[in-house]
Amino acid sequence: MRVLIDYRAALRERSGVGEYAHQLVRALLGVSAANDSHWSLDLTLFSSSWKDRLRLDADIAGADAIDRRVPVGLLNFAWHRLRWPAAETLTRRRFDVTHSLHPLVMPARYAAQVVTIHDLSFLAHPERTRGEIRRDYAALARDHANRADRVIVVSRFTSGEVQRQLGVPADRISICPPGAPDWTPRSTRPADGYVLFFGTLEPRKNVGGLLDAYERLVTTRPASSTLPELVLAGKATDASNGWLDRIGRAPLAGHVRRVGYVEPANRRALYEGARLLVQPSFEEGFGIPVLEAMTAGVPVVASNRGALPEVVGDTGLLVDPEDADGMAAAIARMIDDEPLAAASAAKGVLRSREFTWAQTAHRAVDAYQRAIDAHRY
Questions:
Q1: Do 271 and 172 share a structural domain?
Q2: What pLDDT does residue 313 have?
Q3: SS3 for 282?
Q4: Which of 182, 193, 201, 258 has the most CB atoms less than 10 A away?
Q5: What is the pLDDT of residue 225?
Q6: Using omega within 30 degrees of 0 as the cis cutoff, is the peptide bond preceding 181 cis?
Q7: What is the biggest distance separating any 2 CA atoms in the chain, rounded to whole angstroms?
Q8: pLDDT digits 0-9 by tens, 41-76
Q9: How far lies 34's CA from each of 109, 163, 358, in Å?
Q10: What does each C-alpha distance from 182 to 268, 296, 356, 361 come to in angstroms?
Q11: Given this model, what pLDDT does residue 132 score?
Q12: CA distances from 266 to 252, 261, 263, 361 (A)
């Protein structure tokens, strides 16, 4: 099976879709090397950029690579709006499957076409998006999803949304959730650890709501009670300027620290230094930081919306992302109630073991074969 994967989301900073793309490729190569599937995989990664070059890390060196010096925006416009050029033309090769890691297809003349939809928040709230997502996704997602031979989603929640909002039948959807990292959970919870938020600083992550909740803790918590530092980890966007200005002024100054984008090799240490993780998003198609925190043995406070309840289960505390008082109370409870935090961490570790990248790879290969079968007929 010859598969072409659009790897551009992982070309620079691997957050969200980029991390999913990289780990999926790594897992597919592992399944293929172990001869652990019914199909032999010939995996090729595609990238295009005017200035950034595709270099294969050691853990994905088993894949082939095609790197074109074509500006990302130009190629995306041609692919999304003009359905040109075909993957076969651009790569000068033939494939059985092309796989786009976002909702818009990679056009192909002969190959079956697969797309991955992580979430549909861009439909209800385009104001929380930016760039080409705002320009193209809302307008084109329905057409592209229904043209694709197979749609991959990362959660049952997203599967339901794709059926409801895009009209894609359930029998054309494959659920391929992310896997947990291969970490050993930490043995102790740091007494002087911080409260961690990990994600791109953008509106749909509800950073403003988190700051509102933390401000309540700063201003109302008794002086005798220690309040851990809030650490914001993740790439800043233009929308984050107001939040970054806010954390430099009273009452949050000295209580909130921004550390920026964290390289994959440093993420385990980031989690291990945390008392808890807070994921207050308005909507998540999955929520990889929650799974990573659970794997590391970090208790979680998360939003009760999107796929987050599906991932967290009964291991953490779920809150209304628009209720700053409720969020503040949940954070305080996880800080102060050591038995609760310990139980949350232990249950999170057990739940995280239900998510493996090998399972994701097997499901993806099955989706590819189903796409090929549908394309033939």
A1: no
A2: 97
A3: coil
A4: 201
A5: 81
A6: no
A7: 70
A8: 999 999 998 888 888 888 999 999 999 999 988 999
A9: 31, 35, 11
A10: 10, 10, 9, 15
A11: 73
A12: 26, 10, 5, 25
Residues in the chain: 377
Extract the residue ranges of the chain whose pLDDT is less than 50: none
Give yes or no for a contact between 50 and 71, defined as CB atoms under 8 angstroms apart: yes
**CA–CA distance from 138 to each of 80, 125, 129, 175, 336 (Å)?**
12, 10, 10, 22, 43
Q: Let me know whether 273 and 254 are in one domain.
A: yes
- Among candidates 291, 347, 287, which has minimal Cα distance to 321? 287
On the CB side of 119, CA atoms within 13 Å amount to 24
- Using DSSP's 3-state secondary structure scheme, residue 196 falls into strand
31-40 pLDDT, tens per residue?
A: 877 765 566 8
Containing structural domain, residue 103: 2-179+356-376
pLDDT value at residue 35: 66
Q: Token digits for 68?
A: 């074109």
Tokens of 279: 């994921």
CA 360 from chain centre, in angstroms, equals: 14
H/E element, 245: helix 241-246
Spatial separation of the C-alpha atoms in residues 50 and 52, rounded to whole Å: 6
Domain match, 140 and 116 both: yes
Give the Cα separation of 346 and 298 in Å (integer).
9
Same domain, 54 and 91: yes
Residues 6+ apart with CB under 8 A from 357: 23, 24, 26, 27, 30, 178, 179, 180
pLDDT recorded at residue 39: 66
pLDDT of residue 330: 98
- Domain presence at residue 185: no
Provide, rounded to the nearest whole percent, the portion of the chain with pLDDT above 70: 98
Are residues 175 and 213 located together in one domain of the fold? no
